[in-house]
Here is the input.
Amino acid sequence: MNFRHVLCVMSVAGATLAAMPAALLAQPVTFVDQGGDWNAFTRKEFYARDQGSRLIALKWIAALKQENGLPFLDDSLSRYGYLPNPESSPPGLAVGFVIANEGGEATLGLTCSACHTRQIDVDGKEYRIDGGPAMADLWSLWSELDTAVGKVLSDPIAFADFSKSVIGLNQTPAQEAALRQEVQAWYARSHAITELGLPAKRWGPGRIDAVGMILNRVTGLDIGKPPSYINEKNIAPADAPVRPPFVWNAWRQDQTQWPGFAENGDDILALARNSGEVYGVFGVAHPKRDQTHLLDIDYLHDNTVNFAGLEALEDLMRHIGPPRWPWSIDANLAAKGKQIFDWPTDRGGCVECHGIKPGQPRLLTPDTWATTIQDVGTDSREYHGLIRTAETGVLEGAYIPIITDPLKAQDSSVAVLGVVVEGAILQRFIPVSLNSLLRLDRDAAENLLEPQILALKNAFKKQDTKAPPVFKYESRVLQGIWAAAPYLHNASVPSLAELLKPAAERVGDFKVGPAYDTVNVGLAANQTKFNYTMKTTDCGSRDSGDSRCGHEFGIKLSPEEKKALLEYLKTL
Here is the structure.
């Protein structure tokens, strides 16, 4: 259905914003039960708490046009899968899009709920799942925003219209020239990472190469020479998209990130995890040499990370409970499924890898949950990013005492990110909990990843190895797993029913969208939202980024046993 765009012109730090169409606001949504600690107030905060992302000036995006001539903010970005937020301030923003006001200038950014809020459709009824993996198309938003700004700069008529909208009808030539200069500076950075970092192949709805883009932004846009800070040599195609994880219970897992290399489980470790995420979604960090600082580098120079916001968001995520299945459950069948879940892995059970068991105690969280990290034959593409190197620029020789070694002129991109994140945290929070900070030590990550990285390097060099490469990923506790389709870390399997089949028998292509299948527990076969088909590869192409191979557990269960196991998984 085509909705007529409704404009609500309002003053928002001198900007006008296209409001959400009334038809979208009117659509009823059922909020799935996520426990007594999750309510309308916590939800509102989760949707709108600033974390430090700085995408684009609000006045600019409000003045931009799509290729079809409609305002860029038309439909509140729902065409990309972002969800209505009737309580946004100002009105018209989607879930996870927030306004930061700095120096009197309003800037649009993203917060974590943009990628971690899910909505599914069953029989025409919408169900909202907070903390679930979003079915959003960030690749298209990113690409089309870059195109829209490029159009303004290359077309004199388009720039004249843009300038009048941003400055006003009484603009002077000097004001127009200054605006063009500001937009050109923004576009130089945006276009560099769009052209060199966004892969030609679209990620598709519900998939993001977050790690790739975090490394691109920090090494390619933040540590080069001022005033642009750009180093295009450090930007590489982010071609290993994964499904955003669900965030309920994420705070208590003792390891995190899909390859499981990041220590997790207390506030400082969470701050490190979340700071890196901010840089990936348009945050800025321009460290500079400054001998007046403890570490000889000012890590908070022109750094947009909102530490207070991140602390608040982490606290909010601790209140998000796993979503409870909102439809009927066959209790007897689920009880049989529980028995199967508890079987040993070689019989088709799940508990050995996905059950709740004590993890590594943390300073303030002694009761963490263990996160199993192992190779189950799934897609290996994400490991390419872990062996990337970068010119370290202003950070050459920089290190965090006790925690890291000095960065070489050419060093690991992951190591560069670690120094930027840890340096900023240390500078912001001295004194900090030393025990927690020391657990940022990358020795644990290096010890975990070294066999895989060496094997991968050898595979690239086509050298003989005594053992095949090992590519480990985390196996999370499965509470709420029914709401996290599609499955495997790269979103290559549409439903839990498909995951219980041998890889060779799993569907190769499937449509992606919010329509949900309550029987097969995952994406419905028919989708109308995006007109996008996920095309996967088989086990002959494990490194494609789209391989549906691996995790062949439970495949020998009888049809009746599989049905019972699925019924139990709905109860988690």
About this structure: The first strand starts at residue 29 and ends at 31.
